[in-house]
Amino acid sequence: MAFALPLLLLCAPIMGQTAPSLSATVGGSVLIPCSLPVEPVRLKWFYWQEDQSKNILFHWDTNNPTQPMTDKYKNRCQAFEAEFSSGNISIRLDSVTVMEDQKTFWAYASFYDEQKKVSKQCEQCCKSKLQVSAPYQDLQLIVNNAADNATCTARGGYPQPRVSWTGLNKSSAAQLQDAETSLQEDPLNKTFSVTSSVSVKGLQDVTCDIYNPHTNESIKRTAEISGPGEGQQWNLHLGFGAAVGFLATALLLFCVCYHRHHRTKDRVEPEQEGL
């Protein structure tokens, strides 16, 4: 006979317990662990549920292994039936999304203790909390020397990043405080793209650092900055070089034409004298 989920188990909280944090990556899989306190056991039923809600991730019953689950978790959870007898009722959650970030999950189980020959229940056990992240990618740093600013961009990350800038002048490096940073959220997977700009006036180089607070990882890039007038001087050098090249080519063509003209003239004059 299938197990009917009692309202008391669905709603009763346990106070004072702190859930261990499980790290998960957007689009990846995460193991939510749980081992019953006795071995061997004969499982009757167990299920996993979101804290403070009635959303069921996974439900197994010895009399009816197929049980209804919340739509958003359908076909995303897997248990390890071969390990049930050892008390392992862990599940694997696949295709992790941003929506699971900071979610807490509990396990509920009814089993028979083979040693003590008694039935037991585990209510709200194996509390676990997910911390979901996604690495920021495609970091780009562009310096606009004409406008004396730099712009840093990255995409596909979660959660919101911390962006910091460091600038190097002739004497020392310093944190830059006047950056303007904006975020854009992807409407589908809820990850973020970040754009940050800062003034680089008077600096020799600048570094953009994008920090993910969930993974404690940073990605950074450094770019050199042209000094005042360096870009204009380089353009003048290019212009002067082009002018010299043009004059040299013109002079060469003049010499070739002049030489050919005189060779032709010298050849015609003797013929006229013969006549």
Taken in chain order, the helices and strands follow as HEEEEEEEEEEEEEEEEH
Q: Pairing-aware structural class of the strands and helices?
A: alpha+beta
> Low-confidence segments, ≥5 residues, pLDDT <50?
1-16, 229-238, 270-275
Measured by DSSP, the beta-strand proportion falls in 35-45%
Task: Report the strand count.
Answer: 16
Strand order of the largest sheet: 1-8-7-3-4
Number of helices: 2
Which whole number gives the mean pLDDT?
Answer: 82
N/C terminus separation: 131 Å
Shape: elongated
Q: Give me the Rg, rounded.
A: 37 Å
Biggest pleated-sheet summary: 5 strands, mixed
**What is the helix fraction of residues, given as a range?**
10-25%
Structure notes:
- There is one protein chain.
- The protein is of the alpha+beta class and 275 residues long.
- The protein has helices spanning 7-11, 230-274, and strands at 21-25, 30-32, 41-50, 56-61, 77-79, 91-93, 104-113, 118-133, 137-144, 149-157, 162-168, 173-176, 180-185, 192-199, 205-212, 217-224.
- The strands form four sheets. The chain has a five-stranded mixed sheet with strand order 1-8-7-3-4, with no helix packed on it.
- Strand 9 (137-144) and strand 10 form a beta hairpin.
- The longest helix is centred in the last third of the chain and has 45 residues, at 230-274.
- It is elongated and about 115 Å long.
